[in-house]
Amino acid sequence: MSYQQIDSRRLDTTFAALSDPTRRAILGRLAKGETTVSELAKPFKMSQPAISKHLKVLERAGLISYSQIAQSRPRKLEVKPLKEASVWLEEFRRFWELSFGRLDSLLEELKIEGEQKKGKSQKSNKTTKGKKNAK
Amino acid sequence: MSYQQIDSRRLDTTFAALSDPTRRAILGRLAKGETTVSELAKPFKMSQPAISKHLKVLERAGLISYSQIAQSRPRKLEVKPLKEASVWLEEFRRFWELSFGRLDSLLEELKIEGEQKKGKSQKSNKTTKGKKNAK
């Protein structure tokens, strides 16, 4: 999948759906396997209608689906929109890799510089001590 | 950066900021280099106040920053929140890799099966033709 193939309206609904911690937690739970609404509601201090509202947002965004056959209609994670969101973000990867790469090399430089200074001061200490001993 | 180190509230504002096509386009433009608000507004059929509103959302989400010194206050891309959003999504990577991997192997199987059938039917055609010629 390339950057150009991503549907912009789908990105709108995916990112909007992901902007809530409960909805992200629901997706995290569904990543462990499909489950029922009552099971999904358990870890949250929320009423089942409140959870159902979040589930509707996720369903509309195509991030979850459910089986019509079973009475409990277990919810299932749908990863395609997540993949698209990830592909969109990947376009910016070179920026954080560049900036963190730069930071790494800067820290490395400072470390070497620090060690060199330490080395010099130890040498000069030895010289001073040597001179002192010679006195 | 690990999954656990990500601030959940920051993910809320990052994903909310990314849920709009104009804001995503602004980030895409800033990926090419820092620029002024009037330059950012040019490709959009929008008033400058409307663009400024979007910029405020991006600023509050920490996705862009601006220089206080220059009169034009050029805007600059800040990638850290994008990286965090990407790290969050990476947790689901194994799912799309698995599902697409499965699809690939299924397609490969069908291809091989198809070729085998084709091969068999060509052989049987040859046999039939051979028989016909013998008659």
Describe this structure in words.
By secondary structure, chain A is mainly α. Helix content of chain A is 68%, strand content 4%. A two-stranded antiparallel ribbon of chain A has the order 1-2. In chain A, helix 1 (8-18) packs antiparallel against helix 4 (48-60). The first copy, chain A, starts with 7 loop residues before the first helix and ends with a helix. Chain A binds chain B through residues 8-9, 11-16, 18-21, 24, 27-28, 31, 77, 79-80, 82-83, 85-86, 88-93, 95-96, 99, and chain B through 8, 11-16, 18-21, 24, 27-28, 31, 77, 79-80, 82-83, 85-86, 88-93, 95-96, 99.
In short, what is this structure?
The structure is a homodimer of 135-residue chains. Chain A is mainly α and 135 residues long.
> Largest beta sheet of chain A, briefly?
2 strands, antiparallel
Instruction: Determine the structural class of chain A based on helices, strands and strand pairing.
Output: mainly alpha
Major beta sheet, strand line-up of chain A: 1-2
What is the distance, rounded to the nearest whole angstrom, between the alpha carbons of the first and last residues of chain A? 77 Å
- Kindly provide the radius of gyration of chain A, computed on alpha-carbon positions and rounded to a whole number of angstroms: 28 Å
What proportion of the residues of chain A form beta strands (DSSP E)?
under 5%
The oligomeric status of these chains comes to: homodimer
| Order of SSEs of chain A | HHHHEEHH
Detail the poorly predicted runs of chain A.
127-135
Mean pLDDT of chain A: 82
Which two chains touch over the largest interface?
Answer: A-B, 32 and 31 residues
Count of helix runs of chain A: 6
Judging from the principal axes of the Cα atoms, what is the shape of chain A?
elongated
**Quantity of strands of chain A, as a count:** 2
Helix share, percent of chain A? 55-70%
